[in-house]
Amino acid sequence: MMKKMGFVWNLRRLMAERNMFQTTDLVPQLAEHGVHLSREQVFRLVTQPPQRLSMETLAALCGILECSPADLIEVRAVHRQTAKPVASGEAADRAVAPSSRSVRVWRPEGL
Fold first, then answer.
1. Mean pLDDT confidence for 4-33
2. Which terminus of the chain is more solvent-facing, meaning fewer CB atoms within 10 Å of its CB: N or C?
3. Which residues are paired to 11 by β-bridges?
């Protein structure tokens, strides 16, 4: 089993706890801290975990939300099972059949 580190991005939750429900609320506040991001960039920052985050942006968010980086980012261990090589004869045995459901086809009269 391979151990990998992941994280949970808590920006949206921290904003809600401070009655900030619009992503656009952050745009002027970030600008006051010297971080100039477009509305679209701020929307992505709030709604998706960032792949990269500048220290200036992190510091600005912490200042705006009066929190620490640990409040914004929760690091967690993610356990993933590594796939074992499968012998060619075993591959067919492990194939999963597609799910089936009954379907009724209606045809117009006269066809």
1. 94
2. C
3. none
